[in-house]
Give the backbone structure.
Amino acid sequence: MRNKMQDEISYYKSCGFLLLVSILFTAAEPAWAAVSCKEIFNTGTAVIGFSIPDTRLVRHATSQINRLLGPLNVPNISINKSARYIEDYSFNGLENRLNFNLGPKPLRISSLTLFAHEYGHAIFGANFIVKLRGETYHLPDIARTYDGIRAKVKEDPEYRKLKEEWQKIRFSSEQDKIKELNVQMNAISRRITASIDTGLEFEMHGLQFMVMPYNELFADLTAAMYTGNGAAVADSMQIAKQAPFQVRNESGTVLKTYREKNAIIFRPRDFTVDIPIEEFMPDGGRTVFYTLLDPVRSQIWKQYVSKTAPENYGLILTAFIRAAEKHLNVRQLRGETSADIDQIDASAFNREFIEYFKEAFEKLNRGLK
């Protein structure tokens, strides 16, 4: 069966050279595509460095995602095809720039899934509000504040070497090696961060890491909603369907390998896999940001997304952000810092967040502010 994005790629072929000539084609678009060829080019996002067909595709994907946002702010960003001849999907919150480059590879369905994930980061950053020292900030504000620390980390020769190695295999099946590199990079980042005098910049840097579990899950949720496939991100990243998850310390040593009750085997970042909250333990190191809220995934997907029409997905996304804001504030009030992330009670973390999400969803569903 053809899926939505296969239809989308075919749809673009039907749009012809609309950017080159002022002729409107009457393209027979699929039922799910409520946007015309003309509307594809009416988004305010700057798309830089792509071929004409890929520009159409990127603009249309952006437009389709924007239609899911409901009351949320549409991010004001640029989408760039980087000059580096490597596969690259990343969002730079400091510069409001999304890098989307396939390197030598042709456009494929997984590319659009990962693009939607990175665009989800931009949406989250444009809407999530952080309170610190009596002031409110959006994530781009935080990015600008802690950029001095991030620059020092990136300048470290050992960190640069590890990052280059990580970039080469980030989408490969070498999951153990990827985890090992993540743990080593995280240790260097913490060492450098700890050497800098505490202050607002230091607090901002730590806060960014406290926000990351919400940010990553929101980005995955955006991609899953866009594709209509709860397993889309895990499929696109070729995450093994029978991978148990392991608890590791900062040196990468496996402390425990855990499989769920009833012989259900864990698959990271898959909304279609039921993961029990009780006794849940995510991966250690940097990967904890991607997997900490995994038990929440199937609950949001099965209890909310699957029962909601796409035109009302904005209600779910808004409830998610409001819940994340409240949960972060509660964590701040009880004195949590980014240093606690590896020792956090993951079961309690998931229980708290899903309760805040349900509360926010019900409130929004009743039409309350």
User: Anything to note?
Assistant: Residues 130 and 136 are 5 Å apart (CA to CA).
